[in-house]
Specification:
Elements (H helix, E strand, L loop, with lengths): L6 H15 L4 E12 L5 E8 L6 E9 L1 H15 L8 E11 L3 E10 H21 L17 E6 L4 H11 L8 E6 L7 H14 L6 E5 L5 H5 L4 H8 L5 E4 L8 H5 L2 E2 L3 H83 L2 H53 L2 H6 L4 E4 L2 E2 L11 E6 L2 E6 L3 H9 L4
Parallel strand pairs: 3-5, 6-7, 6-8, 8-9, 9-10
Antiparallel strand pairs: 1-2, 1-4, 2-3, 4-5, 11-12, 11-13, 13-14
Helix pairs in contact: 2-3, 4-9, 5-7, 9-10
Length: 468
């Protein structure tokens, strides 16, 4: 064709050709790359299609939703999916191809199918969950034990988020007066920077993880699209590999994200996370108080048991000692009599023998007497040693029992700063044992304070806090 045409004429030829070739409406799947609304209410969208690697773009086109359709389409889509139309969302749109001599090719959107987007998001979430399970890391953070008294908290949140403010107010202003140490690692909690921000925050905390008991990821409420930023494989994987338990309070009552699923514990809101931490410390305190009461009761029983054992031992030791002493004394008396008799007999015999043998006889008598005396001394020493050993052993046992009793003495427990709270002479084991206007006694090492209960919670807190 050699005929010359103007640019406008060429554009019109292209427009008419497309209109003839593509006269119908088409349902097209694509991803939103950019989305802008102008002052007139029109919505301008850039649609793309990516390669299977989800990185490189293989197709791109401009699309428009006119204002008279956009108001209806947007409301219907958001009500159906709990999502806002945003960048990165995959949609199924009904379009008609148009070509304008000034603005070129564009797609006119007349409808969006919300069911496709819901299915795509659910599929994406399931694929992430399946990948984590195949990697064998899905439940790793859940296997970490949450400390009994979690007081050193690392927080990942936005400093200006209402959820962070609510969390700190609830945690610091708890009715029990518990002290919590918090460190905020600030990052964006919505938008395209969410993934990199949360991962960087986790990496920062991991460098000093020994300074904390656990990590909380919190943000206030928001749209469903805000929650979808936490349907991220990379965030979830970092949570599973984290050396400390991770708690989440992302602020959605109906749905949970993949990050919630892999966390050690997921709670609905930041305030709920704070309540969980407070209740954990309260349960630990109640457990310690109950165990302290059990120790006091057990100590009393041990004291009574050892007291009875000491009395029984004393009753048994004295008669045995008397019997042994009597037996040894009788043995000594018999030996003495026997020696005297032998000496007299030898002396008598010596007077009958010649004088030459007299000296020999005297020597033998002295030898016999020396042996007998040595035996007598040995018996005496053995008797003393045996009696001393018995008395020393008995004394050591009694001293050991006395030491044990002293350690278990409630006065020593009170001297270490603890108190015992009782009502009508009965030790309190929990807050449900008292009510308003009850009179309670709090025993210190140096005396007893009598108090009237004004407020049930406050009275319990005061009775448990030594500094109050």
């Amino acid at each position: 064709m050699t005929e010359k045409v103007s640019l406008t004429e060429l554009q019109l030829i292209i427009r008419d050709s497309l209109y003839v070739s593509l006269p119908d409406f088409y349902w097209v799947t694509a991803e939103i790359s950019e989305l802008k609304e102008n002052s007139a209410g029109h919505c301008y969208i850039e649609l793309i299609e990516k390669n299977p690697d989800e990185k490189n773009v293989r197709a791109r086109v401009r699309a428009i939703i006119w204002s008279n359709r956009y108001r209806f389409i947007k409301a219907f889509f958001e009500n159906s999916t709990n999502e806002t139309l945003r960048e990165g969302l995959k949609i199924l749109v009904k379009i008609k191809v148009e070509y304008h001599e000034l603005y070129g090719l564009s797609l006119i959107i007349s409808d969006i199918d919300p069911a496709f987007t819901i299915g795509d998001m659910a599929m994406k979430r399931q694929l992430i969950i399946k990948r984590l399970e195949e990697d064998g890391v899905f439940s790793m953070n859940k296997e970490l034990e949450i400390p009994l008294i979690p007081q050193r908290i690392a927080i990942i949140s936005s400093k200006n988020a209402a959820g962070y403010t609510d969390f700190i107010r609830q945690l610091k202003g708890n009715a029990f007066g518990y002290v919590f140490y918090t460190a905020l690692v600030e990052t964006s909690m919505q938008g395209t920077d969410t993934e990199s921000g949360v991962i960087n925050a986790l990496d920062q905390i991991a460098l000093n993880y020994h300074l904390f008991d656990l990590v909380v990821i919190i943000r206030g409420g928001g749209s469903q699209s805000d929650l979808s930023w936490f349907d991220s494989y990379n965030i979830a994987y970092h949570v599973t590999q984290f050396p400390l338990p991770v708690l989440t309070g992302i602020g959605h009552d109906k749905d949970i994200s993949v990050t919630d699923l892999v966390a050690s514990k997921s709670l609905k809101t930041p305030t709920a996370v704070a309540d969980f931490l407070i209740n954990s410390v309260a349960e630990a305190e109640n457990y310690i108080i109950e165990k302290g009461t059990d120790i006091i009761d057990a100590s009393r029983k041990i004291i009574e048991r050892y007291k009875n054992r000491l009395e029984t031992s004393a009753v048994k030791i004295y008669p045995v000692t008397r019997i042994m002493l009597t037996a040894v004394r009788e043995n000594l008396s018999a030996t003495t009599i026997e020696i005297n008799n032998k000496g007299k007999n030898l002396i008598y015999k010596a007077s009958l023998i010649p004088s030459g043998l007299h000296s020999r006889l005297i020597s033998e008598v002295r030898s016999v007497l020396s042996v007998e005396k040595r035996d007598l001394d040995m018996y005496n020493q053995n008797l003393r040693t045996m009696a001393f050993s018995i008395l020393s052993s008995t004394n050591l046992r009694m001293l050991g029992m006395e030491s044990n009793l002293q350690l278990l003495n409630p006065e020593n427990v009170l001297s270490r700063g603890y108190t015992i709270t009782s009502i009508n002479g009965k030790v309190l084991k929990g807050k449900y044992s008292i009510k308003s206007d009850d009179i309670i006694d709090t025993q210190f090492i140096d005396g007893i304070i009598r108090s009237r209960v004004i407020d049930e919670k406050r009275s319990i807190a005061n009775s448990l806090n030594p500094d109050d």
